[in-house]
Structure formats: structure tokens, C-alpha cells
């Protein structure tokens, strides 16, 4: 560029050149460069060739400029540049005074303080949810007379008349039949308890769905598909707001207590992200930067995953890996450390609250004493195959049902749907003790290794060391078989209703039931046929050689991996749960045979690029870019030839989120890119703050404004809101490279050029449509619904 005649001081600063090269939006630059006259350069005049100097709209920050509209994608490059500029400014000012140094140190440690607050808040909420859910679940069967806020287990712990064999029976706990008709025996008592169980379940479910519909529609579902989409840069206003947090916390307790086949672990990730989003507003660097807020939300999701794994399985490392494998989209190294710190704080908070009342952090306490044999890998592989088949069945059936819910009359009556499903669940579940109890308690019983003092039907062996099954064991197997079929079918219908619903615990329950059944079958086979060749070498008579609860745990890991497409984190979770390397091979075997594709993101139409999917098709950027040959020309702005009316007309007639800026329509030489929201806000602000701005005022995106006729209205300079270096690729760039660029840089659009001339644009939705079209799916199915 020819700089002849320019003021020399304006182009010699290395710092200015760095800012230009980094494409940062400098909101502090308030000076227009003086005109080409040398005398004017050295003077202090406020006129340019007789025309008053233009007012720069960015003398003071304009509210709204640099923000994003709902259901749009953030510009990661711009947000990162803004954060780097802020950090450089704080670092440079820290040397000027002691107060500035203190501010710099506090800014550096604010991230750790935020993680501390998130850990405390999410841990406290999780503990409260656990305690409330346990109490309300037991409330369907009875109440503690002396301390009504105690659940069944805690009520009987306080009794001096409770025996170890009948520790669930105590005079302080009264069933509803005993309170209403005065007896616990007979058909009338059974019917009374049955009706009260169903009524309480319907009441809890009705309150949950009503609160969600009335106050926070975003509080339904698990939230993980939306969280992954938000972490990738998509804006969904209100999804992480305070009302969503309050309603989701309350309705999660109600939904779990109603007995529906759902879990609370997935929605707790949503709750933790809401905590992170709300606490972000206490810190300036997070409040004003969308990229930093997503980093904090990512830490929050990791914190909650670790809290779930610490609380349920005493495995914080598995929690970090789980969040990395399933939830996270952006995961730098510092996020790993901060997430682990937040998880530590959440675990400490839970330990202080003691939600289970047993001075332990674990819900599923596991302790094995019998080693496994190499031949048992065969049933372990079978469990893995079952987990994969169950995952494939669930995904296909649930997506089909959810699509039917969206496209038929069923979607117009969510309250009726929830009540019908709850009524069917309660009516079918009550006669079976393994479906009547909460899913967490069921998994805990299936993971339990039978001992001499266990009163469970699963442990009623005729001779425990030899383990011949008694009548109660066979009865329990029939009940578990019916519970398995019921859980598999009802979970398909339940997941996706307008109540908070998680999938981890129901999936683990299906796998644990299948594993326990297979384990008991192998155990009895080894007992009655110990002389077979496959058992002769390692399973002698009287030896406890088969551990059915190990099969339950392997089955749970397999089904969890089959439904969530995870392989590493379920293995690590179960490995930490057992506390030794003894069982790492069977735990690795089952999940490796089960995987899934995240389907609910695609069903809801979220613009999410899955980082795990490979793009192997040989297409070029010109094949995907818009406009196509049959499309109208690309809507662009010129740097100095358009009026306010022209720009407002283009904004009105189009729905694009931004516009490329070119030198002229003839040359199509690219200058920059302007976001639609920034353009609208800047024009509205100029009409209010700058005198004389009318529809015929010309808009300039140039650095220097040419002289204007005295009779013309004052022009409007908007160079400050323009991205001077939008991301561009040539028209012959391979699409696999373009897809990688969008994934790794988090772009929302990319401009296509040829020898410096603008040809078109590719957005994230264009890529998703192209991928869907190649996969023979409906390209319009990716649009947000």
C-alpha cells in the first residue's frame, strides 16, 4: 500500500502493526488519522479540508456492539483476540502502580476463585438433591412419624428396636396402609399402599411437568446435547439462566421421586453449567467474553461429572475423563487442572453434607474378593455385545419416538404424556419389588456381594460357601427378568419427555440386571457341573469361583458405553470402583464392543460439528459455498459507496448474520466482515448520538474519509466494528481441511476467495447440510428446531 503523504507517526508503531496483523477489534482507538496535508499533520485543527472531523462511534463503548443474537454462533477468533488484548493491557499497567499490580494478581487468580465457588455451589445443590430425592422416593410408601423429614433408612437407624436381619422394619416408620386402615396385612392394606404409591407418583410428575412448562421450558431433558452445542459456540439465551437453575433443581427431585425410569446425573451437568454461567457475572473477564464463559461452563460440566463419579463411584479421575470424552468441546490443559480442583471442592462439599448418612461419598460401594478366570472373558464379551445391541435399540427406538412426539399431536399435550407414562410406570412397577425401589438402590443391590448377614432374595442360598441357589434366588431371577424387559421398554418412552431426565442410571440398571442374571446362571452352572472340562481346572466343589456382582458391574459398564458411545471413561470409573487392577481386563472387554452416535443433537437440529466423525469425501470449498450458480448474488457491503438507507434495506431484506465488505461491486476485492447485530446497533446509536445522520448519509468502512460536499449530510464511519482479517480460504481448498478448520477454530463462517476476489461464503450450517446430504439424510434436518 502506498503511504505517500500520510503522517509518518501513524504507521511506524510496531504495536499497531501487531494489532492489525492479529485482527483485533480495538475499541480504545478514538483518533482519526489526520489528512494528507503536512501542515495539518503538525497542526491542531479539528477540520479536514473545511469539513469537521467525523465522530468515531467507538469513542465510548456502544452497548450491544460485540455481542451476539440468540441462536447464533460466537466468533471464537474475535473473542480470543479481545481476551488477549485485555490481558496485555492489564500486564502492561501492572508495572505502573501497586494497585494495578494487585488488580493483575487478582485477575490471574479469579479463575481459581470462580472454580472454588462453582464447586461449592454445585456440590451443595447436588447434596440437597440427593437428600430430597431419597426422602420423597420413600414418601410414596410411608412416613417417619417421629421425624417426618427422615427417609426410611435414616428413620430406622435411629430406632433401638431395629434388628440387623430386619433393618428396614421399625416402629417409627409407618406405611400408608398402617396409617389409614391400621394394618399392614391383607388385600386392603396392599391396595391402599398400591393406590397411595400411584397417587404420589402422579402428584410428583404433575408438579414437575407443570413447573417446567410454566417457568422454564429449557429445564426439561438431560441438557447434555444442548450443553455440548453451547460449549461449541452456539448461543441459546436463557438455557443457563437463574430460572432454569431453580426450576431444574426442584423438578429434578420431583421427576426422580415419581419413579419414572430416569436418572439425575445427566441433568446435574446442566445444573452445574447454570451455576458456572451465573457465577461468571461476578467476574469481569468472564462476563464480557463469550469464549471465557464457555471455558468456565466447560469447567462446570467437568466439575459436575466428577461430582457424580465421586458421589456414585468414588472415582474423580473417571469423572474428568468422562467429561472429556462425552461433554467437552474445548479442553485446554488449564481446564483439566481447574476442573479437577472444582471436582475436589465439590467432593469436599458433598462429604461435609453427607447425603447418604453413612460417612461415605459412594452410593455404590463395591468390594470383591474372588479373582476372575480367563474363560469368563466369554460371558464378559457377551455382555459387551448385549450392551451394544441395547444401545443401538435404545437410540433407534428413542429417536423414532421423539420424532413422532415432535411431528404428531402427542407433542401438543406434554402434561398428559407425562401423566400417562407415570401412571403406567407406577402401576406396573409396584408389584415387583425390583422396579418399585429407586433405580439407584436397585443398582446398589445388584452390585452387592452376598454375605452371611445379607437379607436380599439374591443372597438366599441354601449353603453360602457352596452357593446352591434357593427358591428366593430363582424368584428374584424371574422378577429381575421382568424388570429388565420393563426397564428397556419404559426408558425408551420416558427419555425426552418435558421433565428433567438423565440416561446414565437407567442404562446402568439395564446392564446391571442383565449382568447379574448372567452371573447367577454361570454360578449355578459351575456349581452343578463343576466336573465339566471348562470348570474342572479352576472351579472345584465348595469354592466360591464365580462372582455374580462382578458380572453386574461389567454389564453396567457395557450398557453405559453402548448408550453414550464412551469406552475409556466407563472402564476407568469401574476400575476406580473396584480399587485394583484385578478386574481391568473384563471391564475393558465389555465397553469396547459397544458404541453409539450422539443422535439427540441431530434430532433437535443443533449446529454442532462432531469432532469424532471423519470427513473423507473429496469435495472442494467451491462445491459447498454459497451462492450457487442458480442463487442470487452474494449480499455484500462496499467500503465507501453505500448510504444508511441502502444498508438498512439490505438488513431488512435478508436474514444473514453478517456481511462481507468489498472495495466495490465491480472488483469484489475483500476488505473485511461486519456482523449484522453490530451494524444495526451502530446505526441506531449514530442516529441518537451524532447530529445530522439521515438515510442519505454515506457509510464508510475506510480508514480515511474523503472530503464531502458542504451540502451533503455528515457521513458515518463504521470501520471500528469491521473485522479486518476475516478467515478466508481459496475456492480450491479441500473440504476435509475446511471442516477441520471449523472444528478446531470454532468458526461460524469462512469466506471463499480466488486471487483476492470474493466468491462466496461457507457457514457451519452449510457444512452440516453438506455432510447430511452426503450421508443421504435430509439437509434441512440440521436447522435449529
List keywords for this structure.
mainly alpha, 30 helices, elongated, 13 strands, 785 residues, 3-stranded mixed sheet, disordered N terminus, 53% helix
Summarize the model shown.
This protein has 785 residues and is mainly alpha-helical.
Would you spell out the secondary-structure blueprint of this structure?
Blueprint: H1 14-21, H2 38-42, E1 47-48, E2 51-52, H3 76-93, H4 98-139, E3 142-144, H5 152-157, E4 173-175, H6 176-180, H7 187-215, H8 224-231, H9 242-257, H10 265-280, H11 284-287, H12 290-313, H13 316-327, H14 333-353, H15 377-407, H16 414-429, H17 433-436, H18 439-446, H19 471-494, H20 504-528, H21 533-536, H22 548-564, H23 568-578, H24 584-589, H25 600-604, H26 621-624, E5 637-638, E6 642-643, H27 644-653, E7 658-662, E8 670-675, H28 676-689, E9 698-700, E10 716-717, E11 728-730, H29 735-745, E12 749-754, E13 757-763, H30 764-774
Parallel strand pairs: 5-7, 9-10, 11-12
Antiparallel strand pairs: 1-2, 3-4, 6-9, 7-8, 12-13
Describe the structure.
The protein is mostly helical and about 775 residues long. Helix content is about 55%, strand content about 5%. The chain is built from 30 helices and 13 strands. The strands form five sheets. Strands 5-7-8 form a three-stranded mixed beta sheet. Strands 6-9-10 form a three-stranded mixed beta sheet. Strands 11-12-13 form a three-stranded mixed beta sheet. Helix 29 (about 735-745) links the parallel strand 11 (about 730) and strand 12. Helix 12 packs across helix 13 and helix 15 packs across helix 22. The relative contact order is 0.10.
Amino acid at each position: 500500500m502506498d503511504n505517500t503523504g500520510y503522517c509518518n507517526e501513524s504507521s511506524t508503531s510496531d504495536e499497531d502493526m501487531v494489532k492489525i496483523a492479529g485482527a483485533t477489534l480495538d475499541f480504545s482507538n478514538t483518533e482519526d488519522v489526520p489528512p494528507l496535508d503536512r501542515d495539518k499533520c503538525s497542526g491542531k485543527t479539528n477540520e479536514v479540508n473545511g469539513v469537521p472531523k467525523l465522530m468515531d462511534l467507538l469513542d465510548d463503548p456502544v452497548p450491544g456492539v460485540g455481542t451476539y443474537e440468540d441462536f447464533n454462533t460466537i466468533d471464537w477468533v474475535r473473542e480470543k483476540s479481545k481476551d488477549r488484548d485485555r490481558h496485555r493491557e492489564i500486564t502492561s499497567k501492572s508495572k505502573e502502580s501497586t494497585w494495578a499490580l494487585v488488580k493483575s494478581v487478582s485477575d490471574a487468580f479469579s479463575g481459581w476463585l470462580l472454580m472454588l465457588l462453582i464447586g461449592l455451589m454445585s456440590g451443595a445443590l447436588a447434596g440437597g438433591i440427593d437428600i430430597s430425592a431419597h426422602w420423597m422416593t420413600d414418601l410414596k410408601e410411608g412416613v417417619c412419624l417421629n421425624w417426618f423429614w427422615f427417609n426410611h433408612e435414616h428413620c430406622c437407624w435411629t430406632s433401638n428396636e431395629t434388628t440387623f436381619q430386619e433393618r428396614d422394619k421399625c416402629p417409627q416408620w409407618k406405611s400408608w396402609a398402617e396409617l389409614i386402615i391400621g394394618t399392614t396385612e391383607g388385600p386392603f392394606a396392599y391396595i391402599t399402599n398400591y393406590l397411595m404409591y400411584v397417587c404420589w407418583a402422579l402428584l410428583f410428575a404433575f408438579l414437575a411437568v407443570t413447573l417446567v412448562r410454566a417457568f422454564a421450558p429449557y429445564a426439561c431433558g438431560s441438557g447434555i446435547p444442548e450443553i455440548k452445542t453451547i460449549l461449541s459456540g452456539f448461543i441459546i439465551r436463557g438455557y443457563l439462566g437463574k430460572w432454569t437453575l431453580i426450576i431444574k433443581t426442584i423438578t429434578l427431585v420431583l421427576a426422580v421421586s415419581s419413579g419414572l425410569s430416569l436418572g439425575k446425573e445427566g441433568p446435574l451437568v446442566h445444573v452445574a453449567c447454570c451455576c458456572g454461567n451465573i457465577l461468571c457475572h461476578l467476574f469481569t473477564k468472564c462476563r464480557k467474553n463469550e469464549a471465557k464463559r464457555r471455558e468456565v461452563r466447560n469447567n462446570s460440566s467437568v466439575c459436575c461429572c466428577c461430582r457424580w463419579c465421586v458421589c456414585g463411584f468414588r472415582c474423580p479421575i473417571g469423572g474428568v475423563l468422562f467429561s472429556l470424552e462425552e461433554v467437552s468441546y474445548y479442553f485446554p490443559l488449564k481446564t483439566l487442572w481447574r476442573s479437577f480442583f472444582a471436582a475436589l471442592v465439590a467432593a469436599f462439599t458433598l462429604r461435609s453434607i453427607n447425603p447418604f448418612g453413612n460417612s461415605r461419598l459412594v452410593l455404590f460401594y463395591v468390594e470383591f474378593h474372588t479373582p476372575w478366570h480367563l474363560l469368563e472373558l466369554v460371558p464378559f464379551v457377551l455382555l459387551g455385545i448385549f450392551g451394544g445391541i441395547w444401545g443401538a435399540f435404545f437410540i433407534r427406538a428413542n429417536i423414532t419416538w421423539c420424532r413422532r412426539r415432535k411431528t404428531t399431536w402427542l407433542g401438543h399435550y406434554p402434561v398428559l404424556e407425562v401423566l400417562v407414562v407415570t401412571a403406567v410406570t407406577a402401576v406396573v412397577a409396584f408389584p415387583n419389588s425390583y422396579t418399585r425401589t429407586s433405580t439407584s438402590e436397585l443398582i446398589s443391590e445388584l452390585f452387592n456381594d452376598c454375605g452371611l448377614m445379607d437379607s436380599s432374595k439374591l443372597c438366599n442360598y441354601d449353603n453360602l460357601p457352596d452357593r446352591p441357589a434357593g427358591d428366593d434366588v430363582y424368584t428374584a431371577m424371574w422378577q429381575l427378568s421382568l424388570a429388565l424387559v420393563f426397564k428397556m421398554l419404559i426408558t425408551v418412552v420416558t427419555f425426552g419427555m418435558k421433565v428433567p431426565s438423565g440416561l446414565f442410571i437407567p442404562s446402568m440398571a439395564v446392564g446391571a440386571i442383565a449382568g447379574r442374571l448372567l452371573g447367577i446362571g454361570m454360578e449355578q452352572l459351575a456349581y452343578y457341573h463343576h466336573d465339566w472340562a471348562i470348570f474342572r481346572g479352576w472351579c472345584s466343589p465348595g469354592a466360591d469361583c464365580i462372582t455374580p456382582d462382578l458380572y453386574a458391574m461389567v454389564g453396567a459398564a457395557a450398557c453405559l458405553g453402548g448408550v453414550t458411545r464412551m469406552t475409556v471413561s466407563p472402564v476407568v470409573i469401574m476400575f476406580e470402583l473396584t480399587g485394583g487392577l484385578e478386574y481391568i481386563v473384563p471391564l475393558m472387554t465389555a465397553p469396547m464392543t459397544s458404541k453409539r452416535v450422539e443422535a439427540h443433537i441431530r434430532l433437535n437440529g443443533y449446529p454442532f460439528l462432531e469432532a469424532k466423525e471423519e470427513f473423507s469425501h473429496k469435495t472442494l470449498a467451491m462445491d459447498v459455498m454459497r451462492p450457487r450458480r442458480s442463487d442470487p448474488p452474494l449480499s455484500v457491503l462496499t467500503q465507501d459507496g453505500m448510504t444508511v438507507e441502502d444498508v438498512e434495506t439490505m438488513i431488512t431484506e435478508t436474514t444473514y448474520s453478517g456481511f462481507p465488505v468489498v472495495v466495490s461491486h465491480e472488483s469484489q476485492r475483500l476488505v473485511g466482515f461486519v456482523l449484522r447485530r453490530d451494524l444495526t446497533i451502530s446505526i441506531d446509536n449514530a442516529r441518537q448520538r451524532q447530529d445530522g445522520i439521515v438515510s442519505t448519509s454515506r457509510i464508510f468502512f475506510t480508514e480515511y474519509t474523503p472530503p464531502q460536499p458542504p451540502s451533503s449530510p455528515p457521513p458515518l464511519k463504521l470501520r471500528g466494528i469491521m473485522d479486518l482479517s476475516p478467515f478466508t480460504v481459496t475456492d480450491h481448498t479441500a473440504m476435509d481441511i475446511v471442516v477441520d478448520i471449523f472444528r478446531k477454530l470454532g468458526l461460524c463462517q469462512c469466506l471463499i476467495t480466488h486471487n483476492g476476489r470474493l466468491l462466496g461464503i461457507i457457514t457451519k450450517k452449510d457444512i452440516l447440510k453438506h455432510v447430511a446430504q452426503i450421508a443421504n439424510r435430509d439437509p434441512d434436518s440440521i436447522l435449529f428446531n
